[in-house]
Amino acid sequence: MSDITSFKQLGLSKWLLDSLRAMKITQPTTIQSHCIPEILKGRDCIGGAKTGSGKTITFAAPMLARWSEDPCGMFGVVLTPTRELAMQIAEQFTALGSSMNIRVALIVGGESIVNQAIELQRKPHFIIATPGRLAHHILNSGEDTVGGLKRAKYLVLDEADFLLNDTFAKDLSTCIGALPDKNARQTLLFTATITDQVRALQNAPAKGGKLPIFAYQVESVDKVAIPSTLKVEYILIPEHVKEAYLYQLLTCENYINSNVIIFVNRTATAEVLRKTLKHLDLRVASLHSQMSQQERTNSLHRFRANAARILIATDVASRGLDIPTVELVVNYDIPSDPDTYIHRSGRTARAGKSGDAISFITPRDVSRIAAIEERINKKMTECDKVHDTAVIRKALVKVTKAKRESLMEMEKENFGERRKIQRRKNMMNDKSLRS
Ligand SMILES: Nc1ncnc2c1ncn2[C@@H]1O[C@H](COP(=O)(O)OP(=O)(O)OP(=O)(O)O)[C@@H](O)[C@H]1O
């Protein structure tokens, strides 16, 4: 928490203070007290703060404050890399602005293009979008649908470091090209992991082929990469017994009732694990890019509602998702990029709560762990919650049987072929698989 004690002192209007209070949000976090007054002054902003530190309200509250003074259509555009994150941000805008009849449009891949076009024609006040789908509308729809973008006052890039990588470059340019010039709008960039690419925009915003993003900006960046309430641990494991250790961990005294997210590097691993844990009677759901959007949304609903207590996910879920009940994140596979570790682990220990991140380390992962520890500036400690080898050996028999059954089912269901078909569908649906 910060030295400024109330949102009122930051300059927010009464109706917003009431909305925040209804969400039990009364004291601004550090990033909120640094950035909200600057954004209200009309400045562009780079906001870098730890996962779970309230960056969404940092940009949403001042935009809503300015919008309420003149509530016109297509006031602000928020771009974010994943569909689920866009949905979550749209929900926050809707909740904050509900007393003011706010219109928020969610423009993401995997949903009906026609319905979205109709929604855009109604001139929503805020558009929360993934870049691929918004670019599609800009390139294929007329003035009556996307013309209003030319009058938008704000552009937000949430998870900015990720949006600025090459995958999104073309779509991002299309989106920015449809908005007013950088001097005629405010640009706000937020992420938990500021990269050189984000910083470079600050130093040479309009040169060297860089996106002409900033007019006049302020920077507020945390020096520490992970929340202080996050405990980071590891378990050293031979590759072939990873599933048995996972089962043991999920059913140990500490976590038997916990909400857990398990991150894996491949969709096939997510599917095998989901089936295996289901055979072992655990309430489990999965989230990855080879699922249809309907399946993705259902899984996330089940997890949020605690119908599933375990979510197995690839990195489509590593950024931004805010599920306050998550107590444990397991890095079942170690990511190659240390920043990905920060985002994954940040799905727990949010908003001052405590949480654990446990990494499964095989001999192959040692150099990745060293890079992660250097990036977060902290050594992981050894997890002592699963250590009895006799118990693990006993679990191994049961878990191996469940895994064998799962693999046979996947072969019967032709998972590999379905994956190819889904990938093709995704590509046709949306130019970016990640959008
Ligand atoms: N001032 C506050 N006091 C208490 N809770 C807050 C405050 N601001 C935001 N929150 C809550 O903290 C949680 C995390 O916020 P948010 O999702 O915006 O984090 P973030 O910084 O964007 O994280 P990430 O980097 O993972 O995307 C949310 O549940 C939000 O409602």
From TrEMBL:
Q: Which GO terms describe its biological process?
A: endonucleolytic cleavage in 5'-ETS of tricistronic rRNA transcript (SSU-rRNA, 5.8S rRNA, LSU-rRNA); endonucleolytic cleavage in ITS1 to separate SSU-rRNA from 5.8S rRNA and LSU-rRNA from tricistronic rRNA transcript (SSU-rRNA, 5.8S rRNA, LSU-rRNA); endonucleolytic cleavage to generate mature 5'-end of SSU-rRNA from (SSU-rRNA, 5.8S rRNA, LSU-rRNA)
Q: Which residues form the Helicase C-terminal domain?
A: 245-392
SUPFAM superfamilies per UniProt: P-loop containing nucleoside triphosphate hydrolases
Q: What's the catalysed reaction?
A: ATP + H2O = ADP + phosphate + H(+)
**Gene3D superfamilies noted in UniProt:** P-loop containing nucleotide triphosphate hydrolases
List each copy of the Helicase ATP-binding domain by range: 36-212
Motif Q motif location, chain numbering: 5-33
Offer a single GO CC term for the protein.
Answer: cytosol
Domain named DEAD-box RNA helicase Q: residues: 5-33
* Gene name per UniProt: KAFR0B04480
What's the name of the protein?
RNA helicase
Where does this protein reside within or beyond the cell? Nucleus
The protein's Enzyme Commission number: 3.6.4.13
Q: Which GO terms describe its molecular function?
A: ATP binding; ATP hydrolysis activity; RNA binding; RNA helicase activity
